[in-house]
Amino acid sequence: MNVLPHLKSYLCATKLIQMKLLDGKATAIAIKQELAQAVKDRKAAGKKIPHLAAILVGTDGGSMTYVAAKVKACEECGFESTLIRYDDSVSEETLLRRVQQLNEDSSIDGFIVQLPLPAHIDEMKVTLAIDPKKDVDGFHPFNVGNMVLNLPGFLSATPAGIMELMHRNDIVTEGKHCVIIGRSNIVGTPLSIMLTRNTNPGNCTVTLTHSHTQNLRDICLTADILIAALGQPEFVTADMIKPGAVVIDVGTSRIEDATKKSGWRLAGDVKFDEVAPKCSFISPVPGGVGPMTIASLMINTLKAMDLKGK
Q1: Domains in the chain, start-ordered, CATH in brackets?
Q2: pLDDT of amino acid 240
Q3: Which one of 87, 132, 184, 220 is least enclosed by Cβ atoms within 10 Å?
Q4: Rounded to whole angstroms, what are the CA distances from 199 to 53, 287, 293?
Q5: What is the pLDDT of residue 16?
Q6: What does the pLDDT read at residue 11?
Q7: pTM of the predicted model, to two decimals?
Q8: What average pLDDT score do residues 186-213 get?
Q9: Bridge partners of 193?
Q10: What is the C-alpha to C-alpha distance for residues 141 and 300, in angstroms, rounded to an integer?
């Protein structure tokens, strides 16, 4: 009996996978440098500099950190920025009035209203009040519809950031099976559409799973690319991962950690330490998708000027 073919199969099966970290922080820095150069070129040509505004309501720690990072990114890209803050007691009427003022302010190219908002404010009403041409978060139904039809508009920042992270790391998506855990309107659903397009990245066969999906572990084991966006810390474990899969972790949850001065640490939806050895690529938390979301927001802000012909 010729044992050589069997020996080769065994060696291939047991060979250690060379895992590569999807460094969103480094990728975002490169993007911001490119944007900074584009701004310098606009200045040299006497053109307007992008101006991003952000409305922050209340004192939620995560929201404050995220908005501060956006303001810093504006500085790094050479953008102008305006931060508008309200107490969490602000009325819906006052907030809507400020949104309309930003819609009408020609000096503002794009703006965001940081979510979540207090319970007494209708988030959808606020989203619908934003001028779609300034909706750089890509949440307005007008921009969602354009995304579905592949028409010009703003792509939701997190899915767009994930697509860019895969593109810049030369991840092959064509013909691959991508499983997304989580069907939110902000990440899972738009990302499923983007990945099925005839683009690069794209041309995936996508399975969009959720809380009612049966046999989730078995489905995940078929994934060439697994994207976890469900908001449950360390939900994805090693026994859900096919060897050599690409794993992208979108989750960011604060969990108690007595060893930290703050008393907590950030955790993703993936149990990183046990999953990473099985992966060809994996994104960390923090430092993975988060920085790419902010970079995508900067891209959208510059794009706002192009869409308006400025």
Answers
A1: 47-136 (3.40.50.10860), 156-290 (3.40.50.720)
A2: 98
A3: 87
A4: 32, 26, 20
A5: 55
A6: 35
A7: 0.90
A8: 96
A9: none
A10: 16
Q: Give me the helix-helix angle, 61-77 and 289-307, nearest 10°.
A: 60
Residues annotated as part of the active site: 70, 114, 137
Q: Closest Cα partner for 164 from 37, 43, 35?
A: 35
CB atoms within 10 A of CB 221: 16
Could you give phi then psi for residue 17, rounded to 5 degrees? -80, 135
> What six digits make up the tokens of 152?
């010009």
Taking only Cα atoms into account, the Rg of the chain, rounded to an integer number of angstroms, comes to 21
